[in-house]
Amino acid sequence: MGSANTTGSAARKARIEEMRRAEQARERRGRVLVIGGSVVAVVALVAGGVFVVRSQSGDDAPAADSKASGNFVTGKDGVRTWKGKLGRTHVTRTVKYPTEPPVGGDHNQVWMNCNGDVYTKALNNMNAVHSLEHGAVWVTYNSKASKADVDALAAKVKKTPYTLMSPDDAQPDPIMLTAWGNQRTVTGAGDPNVDAFFAKFVQGQQTPEPGAACTGGLPQ
Questions:
Q1: Pairing with 153, which of 115, 159, 190, 216 sits 20 to 30 Å away (CA)?
Q2: In what helix (H) or strand (E) does residue 50 lie, and over which residues does it extend?
Q3: Read out DSSP for 86-97?
Q4: Is residue 164 a contact partner of residue 114, using CB atoms and an 8 Å limit?
Q5: pTM to 2 decimal places
Q6: Backbone angles phi, psi at 153, to 5 degrees
Q7: How many whole angstroms separate alpha carbon 24 and alpha carbon 33?
Q8: Residues in contact with 60: Cβ distance below 8 Å, sequence separation at least 6, in sequence order
């Protein structure tokens, strides 16, 4: 049994390291694109001005809700899986989600950085949902969570790519874990379901955009 756990742990560490290397490569490409974009912007200004063109596609269409319809179904492992539609349109208006924290739906075009980022203030759900779309696990807690648990979870998040953490006083339980279309409550940082959730959902099969960046977004 110990051998199996060791093998599983080694495989997970290898997967995280592979994701970290991929993320670093994306960062390098991003810097090149930023430099190139800056040059183009300067040329455009010199040419006579900057014009903002609103796209007529669905990506910029305003929305009053998340385009999420369905309900949770709880599995034997305690994970609640959303059964139904989760929209994925980029929108500019505030989105109202049917759950807190949300597990998916229409969202802002900019994601929250989720490369092991720990935030001390509540996030805009619309940006955090975009991070879920990229395969991140979102750890949230309210004022009923103990400081010891919050600190221990923060330490875990900081060493795990494709995760982020933030307070959420609107959620119903002290500590909750969320991935795209999936969510569960845990009793504390030492709950074995924390590791199980991370192992299954960090860049898991539920990810709509596997390999998409978790850097280059909002740092809050």
A1: 216
A2: none
A3: E---B-SSPPBP
A4: yes
A5: 0.76
A6: -70, -40
A7: 14
A8: 54, 90, 91, 92
